[in-house]
Amino acid sequence: PHPLLAQIPLTVSPFISLPSAPTLPYTYQPLPSTLPPSATADSNGNEREKIVVSQSGHAASPDDIIASCQALQAHIEKMQENSERTIREWEDNLREEQLAEKRRLAPGWLDRDEKILQPAKMAAGSVVPEQGQSANLMDQQADETSDVQMQQPVASREGDELDRAFGSMTMR
């Protein structure tokens, strides 16, 4: 015995009994001599090579690493699709809210092809065009402005421009 254990006195106690050998049931069967195939072995029974060993001591075969990388890639693609779908839904909702706000502010404006900002007023002397004449208001206004411009002499317009640029000067 060890010298330290020899120094400890042993006492016999009537309350402590040593364990006895267990009795086996009649249905007891011994373990088989061959074990099931190993989880680390391939189908031929050869042990798979654990080529890659991490710093923590975890070893893995290249097939295990490839399988985990493919699972990770599939997970990332799924997350990316979900996030893109969420962003598209958010943008669509935002666009719909803005359209609803515009329709609330100006009902009917977005529903028509004509975008008239100010109503056009007809001149008092204008004649309603017949079926053969042009019904375009812009043509009528262009004709009226060209008539007014022809009536004014050209020199007067140039003089007015000079007066605006240099100020009016009186002749002595």
Task: Please give a structural write-up.
- The protein is mostly helical and 172 residues long.
- The protein contains four helices and two strands, in the order H-E-E-H-H-H.
- A two-stranded antiparallel sheet has the order 1-2.
- Strand 1 and strand 2 form a beta hairpin.
- The longest helix is centred in the middle third of the chain and has 44 residues.
- The protein starts with a helix and ends in a 6-residue tail after the last helix.
- The mean pLDDT is 75.
Explain briefly what this protein structure is.
This protein has 172 residues and is mainly alpha-helical. Helices cover 44% and strands 2% of the residues. It has four helices and two strands, in the order αββααα.
The proportion of residues forming helix, as a percent range, comes to 40-55%
Major β-sheet, in short?
A: 2 strands, antiparallel
Dominant shape: rod-shaped
Strand fraction: under 5%
Question: Main sheet: which strands, in order across?
Answer: 1-2
| Number of distinct beta strands | 2
- Low-confidence stretches are none
Number of helices: 4
Instruction: Let me know the average pLDDT.
Output: 75
Q: Supply Rg.
A: 51 Å
H/E order of the elements?
HEEHHH
Query: Could you say which structural class the secondary elements and strand pairing correspond to?
Result: mainly alpha
The N- to C-terminal Cα distance equals 143 Å
